[in-house]
Amino acid sequence: MVPDGGSGTGDRAGTGGETAEEGAALLDDLRAAIGRYVVLPSEEVLTAVTLWVAASHIQPALQHAPRLAVVGPTKGCGKSRVLDVLHETVSRPMMTVNTSPAVVFRIIGEDPPTLLVDEADTIFGPKAGDKEDLRGLLNAGHQRNRPAWRISGPEHKPTAFPTFAMAALAGIGDLPDTIMDRAVVLRMQKRKPGEKVAPFRSRHSVPELNALRDRLAAWLTPLCGTAHRLVPPMPVEDRAADTWEPLVIVADLAGGHWPAQARAACLAMTRNEVVQDEQTTLKTRLLRDIRRVFEQQGDREALRSHDLLAALIQDAEAPWAEYGTKGLNAYHLANLLRDFGISPANHRFENGRQAKAYARNQFLDAWARYCPDPAQPIPAAGETVVARRAQGKPPTPPSGTLPIGPPGGPAGPRPTR
């Protein structure tokens, strides 16, 4: 029977170690324990983490394995502490601070672990080198029956490696967008003065959390068959529904207030990511428009902040004249560019006067990453590289996959609790 999103799951869930009512109470206990050790951005996020942990105990029943992206703008936001708590509560945890595709290929089998990857920014960051195999593996592992084929063994036989496994990845700044798109996203922030957490100490924290883990396993493991048959009504569609369905299944098995609470968290957090995507798109538009202004000014070494703002606002087709309440100003501009490592500084111009300005060379890296020039046309027959250079057009550098998303995460106000 498909649950109706209400609390009519009591008899079904009673086949496990705990009844449905006890399952709801167990989720309450888990939620309270997680909230003691970490300060999460919102009540909805705390609900989501609780359900994600519980969903790891029904992995064999799931069609999709949602990622948990634990990201923050700086160090000290509690990302690693979240992984500490997950390590003691999820099913079959495997913690690593770095990894390779070869390792992951070999540890994922028919009964996969729950991958917990700390410092994921060192895997996918701009200095991490080519990690496309690992990104592809994590993308494929979001859905069941997406094996990766490799030549393996002394006989060099084609071998299918399973990829399906739940994974939590923590790091500074957004992860690649293909992973974020398959994740329940936790945007961590530093604790405010007065926000207290319990110290995480192995001698007392681990036994407490392990007891909750064992209760989860006793309740949910016998319910894998039931969970596999459930097709819960979802408040979202497409990939967001795929990602959140395991969490909603657990909530529906528990009943009580959890089905409504899970769907409310799903709506709130997916809408928040839509806002984040829109903000990122706006920043990319800003980078393109600034490049255009520099080109119109003959690619000068620097532009006064005042002049750059005036040029941006004068573009009738751009959103800058209507940005905020009175149009884009110097504060807005600096805030939008901050995550790219770009900021105004005093610059001495040809007339000897100093003014706050943006140097063109500050933008070169961001332009290359987020809005690269379209590929130059292939030279016509008889056109030589020397001829192109003579026209002031250097050969087009080889194109490649570029990181997506600001290094420090999208800017903008964040909830602190």
TrEMBL record:
InterPro entries: DUF3631, P-loop_NTPase. Residues 394-417 have a biased composition (Pro residues). It comes from the Bacteria. Residues 187-370 form the DUF3631 domain. Residues 378-417 are annotated as: Disordered. This is DUF3631 domain-containing protein. It comes from Streptomyces pactum. The lineage of its organism: Bacteria, Bacillati, Actinomycetota, Actinomycetes, Kitasatosporales.
